Write the structure tokens for this entry.
Amino acid sequence: MTPRRMRVRSSASTYRPHLGYWLVLVLLTLPALGWSETPPPRPAPTLEEVRQLIRQLGDEHFAVREQASERLQATGPAALPMLENATESPDPEIRSRAWRIIDQLASEGQIPALLFQLACTSPPVRAVAAESLGKLEGKAQAALPNLIKATGDQTEFVRCSAQEAVKKIQATLPVKIEVKHNVESIDVAGETFYRIEVTNQGKEAVTNVSIQALVPDQLGVQSVQGPVKHRQDGQRVAIESFTLEANDSRFCEIHVKAQRPGAARLKVEVLVDGLVAPLLGEAATTVNAPNPVPEQPGK
């Protein structure tokens, strides 16, 4: 009996791609055809749409309120002016949600939201806003005028937070100011001096650098020394403007005499072309009252 001959087919002729193969191929091809799982970004709402979203913050339906909050949150700083107005709405729900959105934007480092908090009526909120701006350092240069104003806040811990924030931001600027003094306290009729030094840490010259110092009433100005020209008007000393080359510095010394007891704080402002706000510096000295003269025995 003749053995039956078996036909052998090559693997190339018998292989049929599995359905999963085609599915993977299609999925890989979709992005190239312009298809994507991520939907296109939603266009920013118009002003009228923002007004409508603000009204929806007080809608009777929770889902509508939530969706409006999400849209306004996603809109970001562009919605802030209307959100700020909404914080004074007669509707408590709108007020509450507007504040929450602003707080969230502030926590994300949005400077306009932080500036709104810095001007609010709550001292703790103002202090936290100042601290947050300080953490942004050089990115918060535009906030310097507002922070400088906050250094005169009626609440002490807000003033301290603003002063620290100003220092942190100023430390990132090309121009640096230092106010030094050689004693922490002096007696009435004692003498001391303050050294004001301005340094250009940048790579280019800065122009129209001027220094203004306000000497406190507890001290009297005796003289102003250093390689600068100055004018004196009572307790105010003004250094005429000059140009400061890169990696250069200029100083002046204000010599004073203690006139009456108290906490004396010398305040300095440095104006420079190109900076949005003056650089601030200060130094504190305690002027001690004179010791009473002991009475002589028998008098």
